[in-house]
Batch of 2 targets.
Target 1
Amino acid sequence: MTCDELRDSYEIYALGIADEPESSEIRAHLDRDCPTCVPGVRGARELTTLIGAVAPLAEPPARLRKRVLAIAGGQKSSLWNWSPVWAAVAAGALIAAIVFNTRAQRASAELAQASAELQRVQSESAAQTRELARLNEAFAILNQPDAKQVVFGGGAPQPPRGRVFLDPTRGVLLVASNLPPAPAGKIYEMWVIPKGGKPVPAGLFQSAADGTALHVLTGPVDVAGTAAVAVTVEVAAGATVPNLPPVFAAAL
Amino acid sequence: MLLLPLLLAIEFGESDADLVRRLQRRDPRAMAELYDRYGRLVYTLILRVVRDGGIAEDLVQETFLRVWNRVQGFDADRGGLGPWLLAVARNRAIDYLRSAAGRMRNAVELPETDHPALFADMEKELLNSDRVRRVRIALEKLSENQRAVIELAYFEGLSQAEMADRMHQPLGTVKTWVRTALKSLRDELGTAVPA
């Protein structure tokens, strides 16, 4: 395709939602440093980047800065902070590169592979950290003496059942069983329903293969003003209003 | 008002290109400056996407970790650091959203480092409240459906087919809304596509 034919697709490409063949064609033009498409997509990306900056600024917690700075502090010398295994891999590859000069390219590839593996491990570690943080939030709610507890689905063998805990300062914890995973392309969405008000989205979650689920909504909640906590099945990205009847609801 | 410290940091601080070079030298203070300059924007963007403060914190950390790990491949003379950082942040957040929803990961195609020249050096524009305000006004001028498709694409990473499914509209209609909305924004902001 020519640059003229691609011109109207620059912004859609910059948003990441271009269809084929336009997407591949633009990428091919960019790969060969096309003098028309590179500045064109750059302008489009400028526009889409500004869209991301229109949300009212939120204030991150102070602890987040420390967490981010720990990345650099912990990797002041990246080699020495790798786990011993990876440090050994890297050192081995380095020695190979020096001793076998003709194999330098291969050693470099091994280093890149080790680096990619390290990144995968770091990513898994971040996921574990996230899960741990979620469990900590759950325990924090459970430990609150003022947390209100509501049982739902009791007495019925098959429907989802479980408990909802609401703490005015910590948030809402949902623990459920008999809740089969939502179908492909769907997800469970929790709603906090105020007395006399419309349901408020309270986060998305998926249940495990064994039908258990744990979901936490962190932050203050008006327990006295809450009529119920409910869960619906929604499209994968979630919804701002419930589109289907609740799978279950816990009335306070 | 919230932008004032950011603007001061930009006006009186070093350029993004200098900051990139210090990051590439593994200077921990450069990471602090990077966070102070863009951390709030990154957190805001990710929070807007995932709508959960705890998850947003984790993803902000992942974003900066990714940038720290990949900054060696970033050509500061060819691309802007802020837009790249926001692109990485948006990728992380949408990837999480898709993963949490059981959707295909990496369905949104956002090159992060392969074409640094695509990330215009726009640090002042990015943190310029007047420029951001113009975008906000331009978005408000769009029809409800046009604004919805832009937000679904940008903040939720939905493809045009997924948007059609979500909005119960024909795919062709959604595509028309997307194109019309983007053209309107481009015209309002005077973002010229080179002839």
Note: Chain B is about 70% helix and 0% strand.
Target 2
Amino acid sequence: MAALWIAAFALLSAILAHVTALRLGMGALAAYGASLLAGGVVLTASLLLLPQRIDGGSALSAGLLFCAWWFTFLNLVQSFESSLRVNVLRQLLRDGGSVDHAAFFARYNDRSLIELRLARLMRGGTVVMRDGRLFVVSTPARLMAHLFRGLKLLVLGRPSEFDRLGK
Amino acid sequence: MTAVFLGTGTALFAGLLHAGLARWLPARLYIRATFYCLLAGLAACALLAVMNGWVLDAGQWLLIVILAASLVLAYALLFVGIAWDSPTLALVNAILDQGPGGMPAAALDDFIRKHPFVQSRLSAMLLAGVLADDGKCFVVRGDMGLAMRVAETYRRLCGQSDRAG
């Protein structure tokens, strides 16, 4: 049971570090890094400094639990920031919980969504425009794009969710 | 150490089972199926323990269940990124597909036409019951409010702006 408490304490530290990092004006990526680092340090320190003896199995459990929980935390926070579904729900709740079809499609359309994402990519230096053409200049972005396309092909047998629509 | 191996093994079994079945599942069942695969994994784990005569106390079983559930939850979140395209990564892939010459900015129209993200996400929310369509309006299910309030509180705590999506 010690593993559960140690992992929970490490996750709490990681969340506090994430809030603090963003409050101090750090970028999103740096804040995630600070969060993971803080959680990892607290986890290691707890395993080493706890007065009761922690066996290898408990230490491994604590590490695995912390990794799984931190990954869940990362995904949830990232979805608050950039998920279209979460953004739609947030806006609808602000508007009283419902919106008519015309107003919905006026607010949410593929063009504004893609232009927002492209603007973010260009602002972050992942994509640049030269002579009216777009180029990906970030190696991590290339790797992520290739990784997820590979996983889609491996697990679902198609490179994109829109392939099943025949488009 | 037995509990760690059983918990990790259960999650691995559930993940592999789900990944193996995913291409034959309708999209609306993707996430629900991870839960059923977890249950199948836990049943296999219990069977393995009984067949080998491993005696585990309640604390060890609790650790197995929490460890397996946590790892399967992490897998389910990763699977969301596999099943539904990220607009950002889809755009990066579309640009990379054009080769070293890059993508003409005018080709963005074609990309947008072939990637109806808004309709895809709207359909997913309607299918999941998160939104209801009464014929004139889209209505949010009542119990989503609490989850969104938690998300909003966290964003405010972090000093984040409202610009998202």
Note: The radius of gyration of chain B is 21 Å.
